[in-house]
Amino acid sequence: MGQSDSSAEHASAPLSPPTASRGEYSDASDAEAGKPLTFKQPPPEILLDILEFALPPPVFLDASLACGPLSAWCLAQRTKKALVLVCKFWREIGTPLLYREIHLRRIGQVAALLSTLEGNARLGEVIMDINVSCHVMPQYFVMFDEALRRILGISPNAKRLSLSMGVPDALTSSVRQYDLSKVVHLDVGNEIHLSDILPCLPQCKNLTNLSLSFNTYDKDDVKYLTLERLQEFQITVMWSSRRKLDFLDTIARKWKLPCLCCFTVYEWRPQPSQVTQYIKFLDAHGKRLTTLSITAPLDRAHRAVEPILHMQPVQSILDRCPALEHLALFPPMTELPGSTHEPLLGMQNIQMLLDQCSSLEDNSPVHGRTLSHKTLRWIDIWATWHPSAPDPNAVQVSWKPQCFPQFQAIRLLDWALLRTTGPRLHLIIPPGSVQHHETLQWRFPGVHVQYNAGHIYKRDMDYVSSYVDARAGHSESFRGIDNGSVSSMSGDSDYDSD
Question: How far apart are CA 102 and CA 129, in angstroms?
Fold first, then answer.
């Protein structure tokens, strides 16, 4: 049912030399030589580490039903189910991996999970993450609402909650009755109205990470609120081209966020001239920010009206964040032929962004100044990766060293990862994860991500050219193999989480 959180750091203490307890032969007498060798399992904590390393980090997995039964998430689920079938000892150690991260993708799974937890109270204690994304029909809502309440009640260690279920508008108000007092990380999808989730926030005394996603909003819904421990705040706006981000000004005036250090805005189909709305928020909460991400790609129609960023708004943002160390941006972009959704982000566009940031405009109130910041260390830029992409360190930057005395590096983040990882990739894989000239790879069934030379990118497409070449020479044989393997695997129920 669930998916493990295998991205936790593991101890690096050296392992002791092999001994008889780990399956090695010991000095046995001749009388014992004929006995079969007894294999003793490693300690539980060592076996748990081994099993966790056999699973991909959840950040690279998409549990959406739209990804199909052969998605990387489903493959990881199959691996978990196989691990607990090895023996009783492995089942005891591996079962928490199945329930640590719960994904409720279908309405029937809600009742099934509740029945399982009520039959085994220990399973509720291992749940740390609950993600609800199923669609709820009106006739099932009473059952769903009651079951979810009880699941939350018997999962005392569930610190992360993601609510993106499709619920009829008339029934979303029940979310206000959920007990969210234990939640540390709250992620709310655009199916939940802002007016329904905001009344729940005062009870979240331990909340450190808040993510709000919505396509409609009303600034009048925002009430006075204090979140004493909130450190990271993310806003995803699916259709901001229809409305302005004026609610940011309301949040700036009515919310007290004394510990906020990371702010992310992700606009899908943004409206031009929204930077002024960011400024209003940063005027109130930018002084303590160390990380800022403005992920706002532009449509072709909007690009002709106004470039994404010029000197003036960039410097205005930097001025309001005196402690900023990490900045993530989108460069100007062009659209793929016949598409209004997928951007083509080349190195020339990245260079354009940096040139715009380091140039001056005649109408700029900061004319006569160069772009500068005393503490900025890293800039991450979302771009389309390709095998011939140059080292980001080779990108020409005309900033003077005295303008950015702490600046260290530029990284390029693969646009293809955005759909799976979300705009938090720069936080999940921080700049200091690898040293210069080192390479870090995550390679699992359905997952191949690499981090080296300032690039974080998917390597899935590396196999396409060799596959096409092979098919060109052996089209008939490959056709039979491919069709057979797809048909047989599609019928394998182990790939689904039900």
Answer: 6
